[in-house]
């Protein structure tokens, strides 16, 4: 009787062990919890790519590359893109979706903050005709005369996207409601003029230049003949309402919407409406995510000129301001193919710092390795070992652990150095990040909770990613990080 019971329990244990291994393998494949739409919660590390540079043809080879990222932003956002091309925009999107094992969501790049209305150089002629018909330009004074040109591009005229502009009498749309409908018609549902430009399976739209405030003075109010300051609270509120129009209308049309929203932490702040009614945030949770280009790696990055603490606080606040599924790309500028950047030439330090920093919250890491955003002509982005643990598989960290160690981290775990060392744990491992300005630090095996971690085996930096168990202290340089795997001795065939 005891022998039969032991055998029965042994069989149960073996079956459970097999099931756990299968589930672990499935989680490491990057497919875990990949439900579509707003409920999508892909495994970590989460990756994003901004592929709007280069020739923007998106041939099948590039589709396969884009399919490796959870969130992909594509260019080709002009009306004639598909007219004489061998493949349609829909075939591009279907190709990316078909090749993806990580539930890739693809967004179409558009930009309406200012537009080029010079004949012969117009990429949105149908929309610009609507702007012209409704006189939606921003003028220096009144509703005629000299228009206001973009300070970022002197060939582009700013659109007055506020509700001070008149509604289109035919559709009833304000300027950015019309822009959202135009984008949907042109790049998603399709038009009779450019049918090969349509992509019904596109997941959503990406709106560039989603500023928190206007970047120029002008007669935004249109009625009093006075040039309004771009810092006027009433102007700021109306300007944000225009950006909110784009998101609301895109949602009404059934698609996700993200934008270049690095300034959102102040644009969407929930202030006291009694004293600051403009700051309560028309943009609050209107967008499903976006791109924060101002984190680290460039001269304009917050980490560069304001330091880690300010940049980290903005990252936290930004993630609170966007709606589910929070498809926010944590963008690191200026990386080289060996993972260095202008502020640390040591191979792979800057990249590891960036990806582990992104992992402290739920952002999608994008390591920019081109002078401009990556396009097909660059041959695709550099793929770093940390993206798939040297070949283990995307999403190899799985989901965050369901305790404080796996929660979104808002403070350092270990009190080493003036800023402390940060960490976040996942079912499959741990990300550890040592902030800029903290100096080199050493974590003891006791700090790490004992010998429960191991390095994955990589090829780019074998001194760090050597496949060995962590049995002693580890040292991190200033502005560095490391991803370790959680040891599973039985699964990994280790002796007890």
Task: Explain this structure.
This protein has helices at residues 2-28, 60-66, 89-99, 125-134, 175-189, 233-252, 264-267, 302-305, 308-321, 349-358, 489-492; strands spanning 48-51, 71-74, 105-110, 114-115, 149-150, 153-158, 204-207, 256-260, 289-296, 327-332, 364-367, 422-426, 429-434, 441-443, 453-454, 474-476, 480-486. It is globular, with a radius of gyration of 25 Å. The chain is an alpha/beta fold and 496 residues long. The protein has 2 domains: 28-391, Aldolase class I (TIM Barrel); 422-492, Immunoglobulin-like, CATH 2.60.40. It starts with a helix and ends with a helix. The chain is 25% helix and 16% strand. An 8-stranded parallel β-sheet has the order 1-2-3-7-8-9-10-11. The protein has a 4-stranded antiparallel β-sheet with strand order 12-13-17-15. The protein has a 3-stranded antiparallel β-sheet with strand order 4-6-5, with no helix packed on it.
Uncertain parts: 1-37
Chain oligomer state? single chain
Q: Going by CATH, what is the homologous superfamily of the largest domain?
A: Aldolase class I
Give the count of structural domains.
2
Can you identify the CATH class of the largest domain? Alpha Beta
Structural class: alpha/beta
- Beta-strand percent range: 15-25%
Structure, briefly:
This protein folds into 2 domains: 28-391, TIM Barrel, CATH 3.20.20; 422-492, Immunoglobulin-like (Sandwich), CATH 2.60.40. 25% of the residues lie in helices and 16% in strands. It is built from 11 helices and 17 strands.
């Amino acid at each position: 009787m005891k022998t039969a019971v032991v055998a029965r329990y042994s069989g149960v244990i073996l079956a459970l062990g097999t099931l756990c291994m299968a589930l672990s393998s499935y989680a490491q494949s990057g497919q875990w919890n990949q439900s579509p739409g707003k409920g999508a919660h892909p495994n970590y590390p989460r990756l994003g790519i901004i592929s709007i540079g280069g020739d923007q043809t998106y041939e099948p080879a590039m589709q396969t590359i884009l399919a490796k990222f959870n969130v992909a932003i594509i260019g080709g956002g002009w009306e004639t893109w598909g007219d004489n091309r061998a493949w349609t925009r829909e075939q591009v999107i279907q190709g990316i979706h078909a090749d993806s094992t990580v539930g890739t969501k693809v967004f179409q790049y558009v930009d309406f903050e200012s537009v080029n209305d010079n004949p012969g150089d117009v990429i949105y002629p149908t929309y610009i005709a609507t702007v012209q018909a409704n006189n939606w330009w921003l003028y220096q004074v009144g509703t005629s005369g000299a228009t206001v040109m973009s300070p970022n591009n002197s060939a582009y005229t700013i659109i007055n996207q506020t509700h001070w502009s008149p509604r289109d009498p035919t559709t009833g749309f304000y300027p950015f409601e019309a822009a959202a409908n135009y984008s949907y018609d042109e790049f998603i549902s399709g038009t009779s003029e450019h049918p090969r430009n349509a992509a019904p399976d596109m997941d959503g739209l990406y709106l560039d230049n989603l500023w928190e405030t206007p970047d120029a003075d002008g007669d935004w109010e249109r009625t009093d003949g006075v040039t309004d300051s771009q810092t006027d609270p009433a102007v700021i509120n109306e300007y944000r309402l225009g950006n909110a129009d784009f998101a609301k209308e895109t949602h009404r049309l059934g698609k996700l919407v993200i934008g270049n929203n690095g300034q959102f932490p102040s644009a969407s702040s929930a202030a006291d409406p009694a004293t600051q009614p403009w700051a309560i945030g028309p943009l609050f949770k209107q967008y499903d995510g976006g791109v924060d280009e101002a984190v680290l790696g460039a001269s304009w990055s917050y980490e560069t000129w304001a330091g880690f603490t300010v940049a980290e606080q903005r990252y936290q606040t930004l993630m609170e301001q966007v709606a589910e599924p929070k498809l926010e790309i944590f963008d690191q500028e200026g990386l080289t193919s060996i993972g260095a950047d202008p502020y640390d030439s040591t191979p792979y330090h800057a990249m590891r710092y960036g990806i582990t920093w992104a992992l402290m919250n739920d952002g999608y890491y994008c390591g920019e390795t081109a002078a401009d955003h990556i396009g097909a002509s660059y041959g695709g982005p550099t793929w770093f070992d940390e993206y798939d643990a040297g070949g283990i598989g995307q999403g190899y960290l799985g989901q965050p652990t369901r305790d404080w160690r796996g929660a979104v981290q808002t403070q350092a775990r270990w009190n080493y150095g003036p800023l402390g060392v940060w960490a976040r744990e996942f079912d499959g491992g741990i990300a550890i990040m040592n902030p800029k300005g903290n100096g080199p630090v050493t974590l003891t095996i006791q700090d790490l909770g004992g010998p429960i971690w191991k390095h994955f085996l990589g090829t780019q930096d074998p001194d760090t990613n050597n496949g060995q168990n962590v049995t002693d202290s580890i040292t991190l340089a200033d502005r560095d990080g490391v991803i370790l795997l959680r040891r599973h001795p039985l699964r990994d065939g280790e002796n007890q």
